[in-house]
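The methods section describes the discrete structure representation at length, but only in general terms. The central task, working out the structure tokens from the amino acid sequence alone, is never made concrete. Nothing conveys this as quickly as seeing an actual entry. For illustration, here is how one protein appears when written out as sequence plus structure tokens:
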Amino acid sequence: MVEPLSGIDELAAAVRDFGPGPGRRLGVLVDHLVEGSKESRIVAAVTSPHVLVTGHPYIDIWQAVRPERLASGRGRDPAGRPWKEGVCAALGVSEPAAMWRKILSTVRNYHDVETPLINSVERLIDFVTVPATGPG
């Protein structure tokens, strides 16, 4: 099952509520998981051996889409604008919801996204699908 967290500020509580254990593994994919970031500090607090938190270096999942899928290329963040708004403006899209629909309509398969994202997702799949050993 895949379930959005709508941000990771409350990751520790979400992990606790899930109740991971030997027969109940949890995998979490985090945007912008780079050394020294707020995200990396939050993730460091999750220490259960039954939880794997991994991520990708992109500010947002949008950035992991290969530029050729969006025809116009990848937007950049104009000074003083939130990242998503800057991408929308650079690509001539009116608002983030419309941009998300555009992205969803153009990405067909894993070839349309960058390798670091694919690697992170594969790690999570491998982690949560490994059969539990021993009593559990």
User: Anything to note?
Assistant: The longest strand covers residues 26-30. Residues 62 and 104 are 10 Å apart (CA to CA). The beta strands are 26-30, 51-55. The chain has a mean pLDDT of 85.
